[in-house]
Design a protein that fits this description.
- There is one protein chain.
- The N and C termini lie far apart (about 65 Å).
- The strands form 11 sheets. Strands 1, 2, 3, 4, 5, 6, 7, 8 and 41 form a 9-stranded antiparallel beta sheet that branches. The protein has a 6-stranded antiparallel beta sheet with strand order 11-12-13-14-15-16, with no helix packed on it. A 6-stranded antiparallel beta sheet has the order 19-20-21-22-23-24, with no helix packed on it.
- The chain is globular.
- It is about 10% helix and about 30% strand.
- Among the domains are: about 5-145 and about 615-645 and about 675-700, no CATH class; about 155-260 and about 485-505 and about 515-550, no CATH class; about 365-465, no CATH class.
- It is an alpha+beta fold.
Length: about 725
């Protein structure tokens, strides 16, 4: 009779990548030794991931002194606590829900092994990269696309063969006086546009431009009123990118727009080069991603994770390309080619799969009820508007997202739900998330809050988390896109409250930093100095992990420098591991605790891996969903570990198997009872995801250590 033991234990396992020199390097499998018994734990295989609850199983083996090796499987259920910046996770409050030793009939032995596992794992810290967890999600069958009805209409796309900068104004220009000066400025833009004596001036880097009209006709000028120069110097902070701007000798042309637009440029007429192994060409003398399909004679450009196509670049009639309709050769673009970065936006490629899986990993935190609150600023009396298709009303004139639901007011700020009986507060941390928010459509500027979750709570704290949708990263058609594609009308009365944007700022996906921005020639073109609304265009995360960090491409950066070069630039800028996904919860200096890394990574933490050690065994043992244990040999064959014999998992033989030994064997191979095609497929999938996770983990370490941001393709244009 086969025995299955059900036990429940609250244990803590820390799964964390290596991102500090004082953390020892660990590999799977891991070993625990006690009283002459060695337990080997193999890398977890994931089964379910809902909210912040992760479930999975682990193959294991137990070796007693002078006894034969016994194999088994362990099932667990845990709360996931993540830090996406560090690419780490903690599995907290794990319940070991089942342990199974195939073909072991000695109940006393099973009980003894189970107690040993419970006791030792309870105090064990296992380190693991989030790269490995993410890859393991390929085996999870309950992950679904989390965004619907996005707007993929193309923006206005401008093409230039000389240096140019796109200056976006958020709708019709709004002009406002600057207190204490003789100037007026354009409120609804991220750029420095100032009116002085009926002329409009734009400053970008070291260049000045002037025009008689606010949204057109700008020309480069060196004749600027000295008082205006002084005003700009006092209000525009210096940046590390000013040196880049200073090295540019030719003032770029300006294109001023008042609706969603994008700009692609080439250094002279487009220079095409073939993509090896395909019928595709790519444009080499550009910082944009431009591919031409020879068969259809269509140009494809990648903007905000979306492909648009047109027969011509200049004044092209651009149309959205459904991901499933991309030319087949897109998936054949070599990952080490100069245009290999676009594979992230080609459904079905490993790079696209990696990006997709990351969309299902929440950033989590623990919020202190007592010390966490929020203040909402209103521009006049609160004004609400019904969200179409729902019973929810959204505030139009607040500086934060405020919803009116069932006569209660909910505010979402820094991915935390707050609740109040009045729009003026006081606000307390909410321990419930209204179910109605799941119905908010992407046409609403409040769409992103549906990706903010409350998992559980105690009288003291609330466990919260958010998916990348909160910071405008969405899944569409098998790839990742940025923004909903909708233009949201901003609020302006006494104050200007901008809404999230999709187009106009060169949003691109970067394997090191996630989404980045390439507006203007550098961030030096942005005039936040006298704008009171800070970085609301880009939502709660902002744009500090922008164009220069790890991407290292753009008109005057040279063309694609390669991932390693890009990573090195990011590392020097201080974003080696943290630029990838800036943690919104870190916007709050108090009241919010993220990932509990301090207790795990603090120097001198003697409890870290006190009882565990890396095993010298290969990480090639797996458990299927029934608890049977298999080992994959170098030839790719599966050997079943049944604790009575080690036998190849081949098709059943016609002859009956010999009677199994009465005690475990040291490894004599016996004929197999057979492995179904479903079992084999399942195990092969586990093997592939584990291999991919290990590859991504090793790449992360080789590109500077720290598990942050692995490459999703090869080099860049040089």
């Amino acid at each position: 009779m086969k025995h299955i033991i059900l036990i429940t234990a609250t244990v803590l396992i820390t799964l964390q990548s290596i991102f500090a020199d004082d953390i020892p390097q660990l590999h799977w499998p891991m070993e625990i030794e006690k009283s002459g018994t060695i337990v080997t734990l193999y890398q977890p295989q994931l089964e379910s991931f809902k909210g912040n609850i992760l479930e999975g199983r682990m193959a294991l083996s137990v070796k007693q002194k002078d006894k034969e090796l016994v194999f088994g499987a362990l099932w667990f259920k845990a709360r996931l606590d993540t830090d996406l910046e560090k690419q780490t996770a903690l599995l907290e409050s794990i319940d070991i829900v089942r342990i199974h030793f195939p073909d072991v009939e000695d109940s006393t032995k099973i009980e003894r092994f189970s107690r040993l596992l419970e006791q030792e794992i309870k105090s064990l810290n296992l380190l693991m990269s989030l790269d490995r967890i993410t890859a393991g999600l390929e085996e999870v069958e309950d992950l679904k696309n989390v965004s619907e009805n996005l707007n993929n209409d193309p923006p206005d796309i401008y093409f230039r063969t000389e240096p140019a900068v796109l200056i976006s104004i958020d709708g019709d220009p709004i002009i406002k006086e600057i207190e204490g000066s003789d100037y007026e400025y354009v409120v609804n833009t991220a750029f420095f546009i100032v009116k002085s004596k009926n002329k409009y001036y734009i400053k970008g880097g070291k260049f000045w431009y002037v025009s008689d009209k606010v949204s057109s006709g700008y020309t480069h000028t060196t004749k600027v009123p000295s008082e205006l120069v002084k005003f700009a110097d006092e209000n525009l902070p210096e940046t590390e990118l000013d040196s880049i701007s200073a090295s540019i000798s030719e003032a770029p042309a300006l294109i001023v727009v008042t609706k969603p637009s994008e700009l692609i440029t080439t250094d002279g007429e487009p220079d095409y080069a073939p993509i090896e192994g395909t019928s595709l060409l790519y444009v080499t003398n550009t910082s944009s991603d431009i591919v031409m399909d020879i068969n259809s004679q269509q140009h494809y450009v990648l903007l905000a994770g979306r492909w648009f196509h047109s027969r011509t670049l200049k004044d092209g009639d651009w149309k959205f390309s459904e991901p499933k309709d991309l030319p087949e050769d897109f998936s054949k673009i070599p990952e080490d080619s100069d245009i290999g970065n676009v594979r992230t936006s080609v459904p079905g490629t490993p790079e696209a799969e990696d990006a997709l899986l990351e969309q299902f990993i929440p950033q989590t935190a623990t919020v202190d009820r007592k010390n966490t609150t929020v203040e909402v600023q209103w521009d006049g009396s609160p004004k609400f508007e019904k969200i179409k298709g729902t019973d929810i009303s959204v505030a139009k004139n607040s500086d934060k997202t405020v919803l009116l639901i069932d006569n209660k007011y909910y505010c979402v700020d820094d991915a935390i739900w707050f609740v109040s009986n009045s729009p003026d507060g006081p606000w307390t941390v909410s321990d419930t998330r209204p179910e109605q928010v799941d119905k908010i459509p992407p046409e609403s500027e409040a769409y992103n809050v549906k990706y903010v979750y409350i998992y559980e709570s105690t009288p003291e704290v609330v466990y919260v988390g958010y998916l990348p949708g909160y910071t405008y990263s969405y899944v569409y058609g098998g790839s990742v896109v940025y923004g909903t594609g909708y233009w949201y009308h901003p609020w302006y009365h006494h104050y200007y409250y901008p809404r999230p944007v999709t187009f106009g700022f060169g949003v691109h996906w970067n394997p090191y930093t996630g989404w980045g921005f390439s507006f203007g020639l550098s961030h030096g073109w942005v005039g936040w100095g006298f704008h009171p609304h800070a970085m609301a265009y880009w939502g709660p995360r902002g744009f500090h992990a922008g164009y220069r960090h790890g991407y290292s491409r753009g008109y005057h950066h040279g063309y694609r420098h390669g991932y390693q070069h890009g990573y090195a630039r990011g590392a020097r800028a201080g974003y080696a591991a943290g630029a990838r996904n800036a943690n919104v919860y870190k916007n709050r200096p108090a009241g919010v605790k993220t990932a509990n890394r301090a207790r795990v990574t603090a120097p001198g933490n003697k409890n870290l891996n006190k009882k565990a050690r890396p095993s010298t065994k290969p990480n090639n043992v797996y458990a299927d969903r029934k608890g049977n244990v298999y080992q994959r040999d170098k030839s790719g064959d599966w050997q079943q570990k049944n604790n009575k014999a080690t036998r190849p998992a081949t098709k059943p033989t016609q002859k009956p198997a010999q009677k199994p030994a009465t005690r475990p064997s040291t490894g004599k191979q016996r004929p197999s009872t057979g492995m179904s095609s479903q079992q084999r497929q399942q195990l092969n999938k586990s093997y592939q995801s584990r291999s991919r996770g290990n590859t991504n983990y090793n790449r992360s370490r080789s590109y500077g250590g720290g598990g942050g941001g692995r490459p999703s393709g090869g080099g860049r244009r040089r």
